[in-house]
Amino acid sequence: MRALIVVDLQRWFLEVGSDEKLKHVSILIQKTNELIRHFEAKGLPVIKIQTVHKADKSTWNLWALENDIGRLIEGTKEAEYSPDVYTAKDEIMISKTRLSAFLRTNLEEKLRELGCNEVVICGYSTDNCVGQTAIDAYEHDFKVILAGEAILGTKMEYQKLMLESLKRRFEIIPISNQEIIE
Q: Domain 2-181: which topology?
């Protein structure tokens, strides 16, 4: 069975950043919503991943600790999922504190419990959380489908580099929503 994994479509990721990135956010949300609605209509799992940290710094990574810069603190507006992202009826929300949605979470267990052997991954950012999650999904023996129209990198050049690496090392090639839906 197939599951949709929607990565980090939170306010801070989608409302802050370069003009290059921000001009693509509405398309990212539109294409992601299309996939969420499709999976919901088919009765397939929709799992939303969100990065959330504790204010006491106990979940911060080394960079955040060394620079004393906390982001996506639980309970803050920046940590909220974008209100423009469609909410599926039975969606599952999993919080993470690192780039990969598999690291220090119950994502693998949840996918196995649901009987999933294949994941469609979309969200932000291709060169960080989406890419790391795709690699870890592959390494956990899930078939990985990357939703090419529903991903966005921090910069287009960084996204391109990650996509080249995913293709070369793992044969993970982005495909269109239409190809996913068919």
A: Rossmann fold (3.40.50)
What is this structure's pTM? 0.96
Q: Is the pLDDT of residue 8 over 90?
A: yes
Q: Where are the domains of the chain?
A: 2-181
Question: What is the Cα–Cα distance from 135 to 142, expressed in whole angstroms?
Answer: 10
d(CA 44, CA 1): 8
Q: Alpha-carbon distance 139 to 159, whole Å?
A: 21
> In this model, does residue 72 exceed pLDDT 90?
yes
* CB 166 within 8 Å of CB 146: yes
> Do the beta carbons of residue 142 and residue 112 sit within 8 Å?
no
Q: Is the bond into 176 cis (omega within 30 degrees of 0)?
A: no
